[in-house]
Amino acid sequence: MAPSGNELTDRISALTAGLSLIIMTLAALFSYGFVHETLVVKGDASLTFHNLASSQILFKAEILGWIIILVCDIVVAWAFYIFLKPVNHNLSLLGAWLRLTYTHFFHKTMGPLRPCLNLFLLSRWLQENWA
Prior knowledge:
By secondary structure, the chain is mainly α. It is 86% helix and 0% strand. The chain has helices spanning 5-39, 45-54, 56-84, 89-109, 113-130. Helix 1 (5-39) runs antiparallel to helix 3. The protein is elongated and about 70 Å long.
């Protein structure tokens, strides 16, 4: 017997949420577990700046990883809302709004990364044009 439209929607939303959570986990392992731990030296700001300035591609990859996490977080909020709506609409909506609120604050904590990237680009430009 073929699944009904509701069952198919539930299945797709569950698979979407699960796949997004796996992608988020892999992106976090890369961004925080590998890149961040490689570039940031606790207690030594000048060495951290040197690491970031000399590994700008890796730093940009870290930022891309955080962006992937943000997008997947939004997808998970939507998919969980769709999947849990038949069980309890109000709690499903509350869960989605809480997840989106978390994503908003997570995005705000990432705000300082963009000026850091601009600082490194400016530093490189000054070295090339004024050295």
